[in-house]
From TrEMBL:
Record CDD domains: TPP_PYR_E1-PDHc-beta_like (cd07036)
Coiled-coil segments: none
Segments forming domain Transketolase-like pyrimidine-binding: 6-181
Keywords: Oxidoreductase, Thiamine pyrophosphate
One Pfam match: Transketolase_C
Database matches in InterPro entries: THDP-binding, Transketo_C/PFOR_II, Transketolase-like_Pyr-bd, Transketolase_C
Protein name: Alpha-ketoacid dehydrogenase subunit beta
Listed cofactors: thiamine diphosphate
SUPFAM superfamilies: Thiamin diphosphate-binding fold (THDP-binding) (SSF52518), TK C-terminal domain-like (SSF52922)
């Protein structure tokens, strides 16, 4: 099959369709995922084609949704759970971190819980309170969970396939403001490792590492920097747990500088762990401190102010300039 250009949301829909067709044990569960097709229409048409026993509209009860998925996984199913918005995941946080993440270790490896928790996350869509959170670091901190986020349609398709195939629980963060971004998807390709970072733009002077919704901003920043004669390498991290430190190290050894970008607050964010680890690994290669760009350490603001809160082109370029000035 030739590659097809599709939006990120359409790629997720296609991936879910493939999983439902391939494995009768795959189920989709969540609020409004069936008849409505999800609030972002990501699951549109799936209940119609696969039935209410495979694509299940649940009550508004996130803890119950995840708890039910855990029970189904114990019985041999592979549930794919949708949390309607990022800020709604917290009622299910206890089930995720004390049950889903720990059952494998608690059972000394005898019990596996192949559950995928899909979470549309991040800002930039003009939403109301509790609809624009970036809680990925909270889950990456928990041993026993895999945490990933695609930045384009191809990764959206393949990373979800790999998450569903995983015997470990995966938190799959979907950058909702990129749902309509289109790129080529080859559904017959052989994907790379789920947790491997990828160089999406080569460069020589500085490494700009990002994931999910901020990869596009990083690419735009690299293009703008190139107009001033600066060669910036962009690294799509793709995974927040585990983090592909080897790929980051290789890039930094080439460039000597690193700026990490994410929407979530800088304070105790994913960038903090990366900065600490790369400083340890690459101390004698670094020509400048590792810098971080992200949201502010404050509650997400009303939508009228979110453009000031979210790290944009100017803040990323400012960090690039500061790193190159050393």
């Amino acid at each position: 099959m030739a590659a097809e250009k599709m939006s990120l949301s359409k790629a997720i829909n296609a991936s879910l369709r493939t999983a439902l067709e391939t494995d009768p044990k795959v189920l989709i569960m969540g609020e409004d995922v069936g008849k409505l097709g999800g609030v972002f229409r990501v699951t549109d048409g799936l209940q119609k084609d696969f039935g209410e026993d495979r694509v299940i509209d649940t009550p508004l009860a996130e803890s119950g949704i995840v708890g039910t998925a855990i029970g189904l996984a114990l019985r041999g199913y592979r549930p794919v759970v949708e949390i309607q918005f990022d800020g709604f995941v917290f009622p299910a946080y206890d089930q995720i971190v004390t049950q889903l993440a720990k059952m494998h270790a608690r059972s000394l490896g005898k019990v596996k819980l192949p559950v995928v928790v899909r979470i549309p996350y991040g800002g930039g869509i003009g939403a109301v309170e509790h609809h624009s959170e970036s809680p990925e670091a909270l889950f990456a901190h928990v041993a026993g969970l895999k945490v990933v986020s695609p930045a384009n349609a191809s990764d959206a398709y393949w990373m979800l396939q790999q998450a569903i195939d995983s015997d470990d629980p995966v938190i799959y963060f979907e950058p909702k403001r990129r749902y309509h971004d289109k790129s080529e998807v080859d559904t017959a390709a052989i994907p790379g490792p789920l947790h491997a970072a990828r160089v999406v733009r080569p460069g020589a002077d500085l490494t700009l590492a990002a994931y999910g919704p901020m990869v596009k901003v990083a690419l735009d920043a690299a293009a703008a920097a190139a107009e001033e004669g600066k060669s910036v390498e962009v690294l799509d991290l793709r995974s927040m747990s585990p983090i592909d430190f080897d790929s980051i190290q290789r890039s930094v050894e080439r460039t000597g500088r690193l700026v990490v970008v994410h929407e979530a607050p800088v304070f105790l964010g994913t960038g903090a762990e990366i900065a600490a680890r790369i400083t340890e690994r690459c101390f004698y290669h670094l020509q400048a401190p590792v810098l971080r760009v992200g949201g502010f350490h404050s509650p997400y603001p009303p939508s009228r102010l979110e453009d000031e809160y979210l790290p944009g082109l100017d803040r990323v370029l400012d960090a690039v300039d500061r790193a190159l000035a050393y």
